[in-house]
Write a structure and sequence with these properties.
Strand content: under 5%
CATH topology of the domain at 92-265: MetI-like fold
Order of helices and strands: HHHHHHHHHHHH
CATH superfamily of the domain at 92-265: MetI-like
Shape: globular
CATH architecture of the domain at 92-265: Orthogonal Bundle
Number of helices: 12
Structural class: mainly alpha
Length: 293
């Protein structure tokens, strides 16, 4: 009996202990401190940079609706009109130059995207003699001034007696677009899981089938980004095209020549349409990527 007394006494002592009740009100939460004004620096800075980049485009879109006298661009606002959109193809020379630029951009984009994607695959997956030199050449192509590339290409075409025209323009545009496509696709391939291709091979898929069914869908965002970049670089190139165009006139070359006599408002209209088409293509690409995910 006496051996159980300490336990009983302990239990009795523990019975008098008080525990926090769930019914008691929790201490009031302290209000959050107001965010410092320094947290708004980055958003404001980003908004100003975006506005700075978009301002020339917004001005171009605005003055595509301006009533310009004598069908020439003026920065004096004369009233709102949609006449230039209705008479979009009234200037035949301008329409022909834009057609050449679009065909040139499409052809150079297709060729540069195919070659650039294959070069990116080779640089990422294989070891071969001259790989370091290939990397250096790609970055030199991007870093070199356009006037240097244009002059060197002109020297090359003259030395081998190639008549300048659409073909030389195509060669030049493919040449400076390949590096941009290669670097863009290469960045996409950096995190590619090769086990997916090995799994396709285990399922008796040939290398070609594995590429089109597995590899290409995964790296497609990078390929599309490179293609859009190549198209944008080609359609607005002036410096290199001015060296190798011969008698072929592209859209930027026509606009440069028209500055001396007056630019028609259709130039702003074409520029607005090209910009909006680019925005729609980029938005459609993002939507398709999200649906796949």
């Amino acid at each position: 009996m006496t051996g159980t007394l300490p336990i009983a006494e302990g239990e009795a002592a523990g019975a008098h202990e008080t525990y926090p009740s769930f019914d008691e009100e929790a201490p009031a939460r302290q209000p959050r401190r107001s965010r410092k004004w320094t947290s708004k620096i980055l958003p404001v800075y980003s908004a100003l940079v975006i506005l700075y980049l978009m301002l020339p485009i917004l001005v171009m879109m605005l003055y595509s609706f301006n009533k310009a006298p004598a069908a020439r661009v003026t920065f004096k606002w004369n009233g709102f009109t949609t006449a230039w959109y209705k008479n979009l193809f009234a200037v035949s020379d301008l329409t022909g130059a834009l057609r050449v630029s679009i065909l040139l951009a499409l052809a150079s984009t297709i060729i540069a995207t195919i070659l650039g994607t294959l070069i990116a695959l080779a640089l990422v997956r294989y070891r071969f003699r001259g790989k370091g030199s290939a990397d250096t050449i790609m970055f030199m192509n991007i870093a070199a001034p356009e006037i240097v590339l244009g002059a060197s290409l002109l020297t090359l075409f003259v030395s081998v007696s190639i008549s300048r025209g659409f073909v030389t323009l195509l060669i030049a545009h493919v040449m400076f677009s390949i590096a941009f496509v290669t670097i863009t696709v290469r960045a996409r391939l950096a995190g590619f899981d090769r086990s997916l291709e090995e799994a396709a091979g285990d399922l008796y898929a040939t290398p070609i089938v594995a590429f089109f069914k597995v590899t290409l869908p995964i790296i497609w965002p990078g390929v599309l980004a490179g293609a859009l970049l190549a198209f944008a670089l080609s359609i607005d190139d002036f410096v290199i095209s001015n060296f190798v165009n011969g008698t072929t006139i592209t859209f930027p070359l026509w606009v440069y020549g028209a500055v001396k006599v007056g630019i028609p408002p259709q130039v702003f209209v074409f520029g607005t349409i090209i910009f909006l088409v680019g925005i729609l293509v980029a938005a459609a690409s993002l939507v398709l990527q999200r649906k796949k995910v």
